Amino acid sequence: MSQAPLQHRARKRFGQNFLRDPGIISRIVRAIGPAKSDRLIEIGPGQGALTEPLLDAGGALEVIELDRDLIPGLRVQFFNYPGFVIHEGDALKFDFNALKGDGPALRVVGNLPYNISTPLIVHLLGMGTAVQDMHFMLQKEVVERLAAEPGGTDWGRLSVMAQYYCQVEQLFIVPPEAFVPRPKVDSAIVRLTPHESLPHPADDPALLFELVKLAFGQRRKTLRNNLKGRVSAETLEALSIDPGRRPQTLSVAEYVMIANHVARLDAEQASAERGEP
Question: Residue 73 belongs to what domain range?
Answer without folding.
Answer: 12-194
